[in-house]
Design brief:
The chain is of the alpha+beta class and about 240 residues long. The protein has helices at about 15, 35-50, 105, 115-130, 140-150, 165-170, 185, 190-195, 210-235, and strands spanning about 5, 10, 20, 25, 30, 55, 65, 75, 80-85, 205-210. Strand 7 and strand 8 (about 75) form a beta hairpin. Helix 2 (about 35-50) runs antiparallel to helix 4 and helix 4 runs antiparallel to helix 6. The model is unreliable at about 1-10 and about 20-25 (pLDDT under 50).
């Protein structure tokens, strides 16, 4: 059975777009690209603020992004956050339970930079716009190889995705960190500048919620297995 992560009327981002509201476990049949775009605008606005303060979050998984009753996003869990200085290498421990959002520069041991957070936002965006991961391999060493190669499987995205959405994914999931846009640059993209505005010229692009729910359920199952295996080793 699928379980929604809910605490005190707040839910995680991906859970929110697959359910009717905070107060019910009723499942939504679909969600739209417009909704995803509006939420990404909020996430990137928060990331821009953090980077302006020279703070890297370094754990921008969807589980750490919640939606309040008023559809406002909040970023949680600053346990991995670090101050960033251009002349200082920011190191980050590797956690096997969220390998899927780790940028190539972390896996290569090159350290974290502001574009590392942009990569994580790109991964979250890809998951919402495809209900899949952007790289070959589902977990472990195969997934790590896929991330390092940096070959994004855009064929996994939902059919009908707008050109603006595809360009956003292409730029944020660039293998070379310095080839990715800053949070401020992302917010200047035409696709995101339209966030919150009615787009009467285009019909809404709608995605089924069932595939995303299945993806989230499988991801949580894998994470639980990783934690169980780690706990067994400690005994």
């Amino acid at each position: 059975m699928y379980e929604m992560s809910i605490t005190q009327n707040i839910v995680t981002l991906c859970d929110y777009i697959t359910h009717i509201s905070h107060h019910t476990s009723t499942l939504r049949p679909s969600y739209s690209e417009l909704e995803v775009r509006d939420y990404l605008w909020q996430v990137l606005s928060a990331v821009e603020f953090l980077h302006d303060k020279q703070i890297l979050h370094l754990d921008l998984r969807s589980e750490n992004i919640i939606v309040t009753e008023h559809k406002l996003l909040k970023i949680l869990d600053f346990g991995s956050a670090q101050y960033y200085l251009p002349d200082k290498l920011v190191t980050l421990r590797r956690y096997s339970d969220y390998l899927e959002t780790m940028a190539p520069e972390i896996l290569e041991g090159q350290g974290a930079v502001p574009p590392t957070d942009i990569w994580a936002v790109g991964i979250t965006a890809f998951i919402m716009l495809s209900a899949d991961l952007p790289f070959s391999g589902d977990q472990g060493s195969e997934l790590e190889k896929g991330i390092k190669k940096g070959v994004v499987r855009f064929g996994r995205c939902y059919a009908g995705l707008s050109g603006g959405a595809v360009r956003f994914l292409q730029s944020t999931l660039w293998a070379n960190p310095w080839g990715r846009p800053s949070a401020a640059d992302c917010l200047k993209m035409p696709w995101l500048q339209e966030a919150g505005l009615a787009t009467l010229q285009e019909p809404p692009v709608i995605f089924p919620s069932t595939k995303l729910r299945s993806h989230l359920h499988e991801r949580r199952r894998r994470e639980a297995s990783v934690h169980a295996a780690a706990a067994q080793k400690m005994q």
